[in-house]
Write a structure and sequence with these properties.
The complex is a heterodimer of chains A (about 110) and B (about 110). Chain A is built from no helices and 11 strands. Chain A is globular and about 45 Å long. With about 110 residues, chain B is mainly β. Chain B is built from no helices and 11 strands. In chain B, the strands form 2 sheets. In chain B, strands 2, 4, 5, 6, 9, 10 and 11 form a 7-stranded mixed beta sheet that branches. Chain B has a 4-stranded antiparallel beta sheet with strand order 1-3-8-7, with no helix packed on it. Classes of the chains: A mainly beta (about 110), B mainly beta (about 110). The interface between A and B is medium-sized, with 26 and 28 residues.
């Protein structure tokens, strides 16, 4: 059974720092991995999607890497801003046929001015 | 519509009552998903529709939970004889029939059972 773990559970940093959020999964046979952002009381916003054949994806100040063989992904946030404060969730899809996302419990990030 | 729309945004009900939650997916998206998120947890899969049919309902916790998508667009999640443990945010997501598998989520329906 696939299990997704995110470390740390919470993180508080001053504005301007570069951050690394970690995601690990127990079954490396995944189809893709997605990173989401969730603001309090809101739904999920997709940030980056990495196909199993890819090593990384970039969008603005965000970079996500995937090491499928070791069951790990990292989300790198450059030059963090207070507006980045949110919960960040990673999720994996096991195969194309299922499309069922298995989520981690998230990393709650607070960036203070 | 421009995004996934869910109604109601908040629902407070009493134990034992019946509840319906509605999801209107992105226009043209054939796949629709329901997830449930408890406080401090990641979302957990409930059910997945491809068109009108439930392709995978393995996440429904028991037979009090049921979902329909009669015309392949709007979906309704139905919960009978609600219990306090059903309190959570119910999230709906949709995706196009593509190889990327990227899901787009609504803002959720927060259900509180007193």
């Amino acid at each position: 059974k696939q299990e997704v773990t995110q470390i740390p559970a919470a993180l508080s940093v001053p504005e301007g720092e570069n951050l690394v959020l970690n995601c690990s999964f127990t079954d490396s046979a995944i189809y893709n991995l997605q990173w989401f952002r969730q603001d309090p009381g809101k739904g999920l916003t997709s940030l980056l999607l990495i196909q199993s054949s890819q090593r990384e994806q970039t969008s603005g100040r965000l970079n996500a890497s995937l090491d499928k063989s070791s069951g790990r992904s990292t989300l790198y946030i450059a030059a963090s801003q207070p507006g980045d404060s949110a919960t960040y969730l990673c999720a994996v899809i096991q195969s194309y046929n299922t499309d069922k996302l298995i989520f981690g419990t998230g990393t709650r990030l607070q960036v203070f001015p | 519509g421009a995004g996934v729309s869910q109604t109601p945004s908040n629902k407070v009900t009493e134990k034992g009552k019946y509840v319906e939650l509605r999801c209107d997916p992105i226009s043209g998206h054939t796949a629709l998903y329901w997830y449930r998120q408890s406080l401090g947890q990641g979302p957990e899969f409930l059910i997945y529709f491809q068109g009108t049919g439930a392709a995978d309902d393995s996440g429904l916790p028991n037979d009090r939970f049921f979902a329909v998508r009669p015309e392949g667009s709007v979906s309704t999640l139905k919960i009978q004889r609600t219990e306090r443990g059903d309190s959570a945010v119910y999230l709906c997501a949709s995706s196009s029939d593509s190889n990327t598998g990227e899901l787009f989520f609504g803002e959720g329906s927060r259900l509180t059972v007193l």
